[in-house]
Fold these 2 entries.
Entry 1:
Amino acid sequence: MQVTVRLGFRYLWCDRVCIDKSSTTEESESINAMFKWYRDARVCITYLSDVTAPPDGPKATNIFQSTNGDMPSQWFSRGWTLQELLAPRDMYFYDVNWEYLGTKTLLAQEIERITGIDAEYLTGAKNFRKACIATRMSWMAGRTTTRVEDTTYSMLGLFDVTMTVQYGEGQRAFMRLQQELLSAALDESIFAW
């Protein structure tokens, strides 16, 4: 909350706290609206619980290095954080001690190195939705989710697709996403998946 106040905001929305996961209706609606919420946010504050700010500051090439080893923060390997990374116009990163690390734009080259997502998509210089379907899906590679279906559901916003959330369907969720994409786009790169 202190960071929010320092930035001059009166309100804070946190997905972990503000979505009632005990309600399947609310969870489904939230999953389909999540990308829009992040896109419409004035700023997205990203707390990296496994990162400590390096002494040389935002210029450090290892600014996102996890305190658990040589790997980048676990945040970059979680499925749901892909849309959190791409949707917001402004994103501020903070370390475990709530020390400011930098903005998504300032750190775009380092984020590109970690994620493989072109820095121009991260900064908004290019619309990431202009990237072919296969490229956008490749950004999910190496990311994990707790539930199999969430791998698919966490990508809905990347393709501007709305789907009924059906936990328990497993890989069928991905097949449904492919069908949605085939009916909406003439992008044959989808067949790479």
Entry 2:
Amino acid sequence: MILGKKIGAAVLSFALVLSLLVLPAGAAGEIGVTIDGTSVLYDDGYGRPFLDSAGRTQVPFRLTMESFGCAVYWNNETRTAVAEKDGTRVEVPIGAPYLLVNGKRMEMDTTAQIVDTRTYLPIRPVMEAFGAYVTWDNANRLVVIKTGSSLLRVHFLDVGQGDCILIDCGETEVLIDGGNNGAGDEVVSYLTPYIDGKLDYLIATHPDADHVGGLDAVLEAFEVGEVIDSGRKSDTDTYKDYWAAVQAEGCTISYGEDRIIPLSSLAALSILETGNDWEDSNDCSVVAQLTCGNVQVLFTGDMSQQVETKLLPLFGDIDVLKVSHHGSDTASCAEFLSVVKPEYAVISYGLDNAYHHPAGETLQRLFDVGATVYGTGKSGSIVLTTDGWTYSFNTSQALTAADAGV
């Protein structure tokens, strides 16, 4: 987990501690744990949290996970601790540097342990496997775990060479683009656990196939409250399939005009009008900025540098940038980046794609402003989680110059 840092110099070192949940080995004082504000009551019978040799916080397995609402099991044959909740099964083998989430292996930088016949688990990776948000209160030596409606998540889906983003704040869901034609079923499968009743907003940034290709499948699978379209048409079969599905849905349709969409008491999505009279359909992309408390995320579709520079007055300091056009050489000019100053950037691209995305010069411009850059081609689906004050990512596999397309 990597945490956002644009919260002032005094908090930067604090944010680094949060990101790792690491304390100096042998630091004094007991460690506490709260789950949604309620303290977990450890004692000598259950065991107490401690720091392992890697400086990671280990907690008693049974009491912690039962306090989180899990059913817990012990597989004596494989020496594996198992916790289940709401369809998620997490298996943590003792002494192994990984855990299994519904059968999928996730690496850890420490291991679960047995100490004085009690089973202890590294709290951060286990809780994050259940979708919780974990931070460290250094002043009170307290692990703070938050769940549910207090959190907002942005999912940058790995759809290969295309874009697909889900904003989920519990109360409202927004989908931005849907990848290529072949991604439709995969997108629907990914969205299904998160869509409660209906998909509130569907944004088609522009008519290119790698953005609208999977949206007909989404429109067929879910009730959609409103479609926000760029207003730019296309003669391709892919676009026609998307537009026919929109018409069949019979939902509200709007066309990317300036507006603010409330998502929750803490979050809103601003649509920034760019116009649809640009020669290149990429430049007609619907641009949106998410505000959740103090955290700002900018979604740019495929807009090019000429649009970035013309619309500079619309932009300001942000935390996270969804880099336009899959990190091509037309994305993210130096002038634009000097205005938005992202701490982190996410590029959606397919590994070994024919377009050689991301471009090396674009990566370098991002590095030059101090941005840490993640990519779906390297990390798979990337999830940003925020409580409106801090934010984190589910990956630490940052792109380097060596990840540029060739």
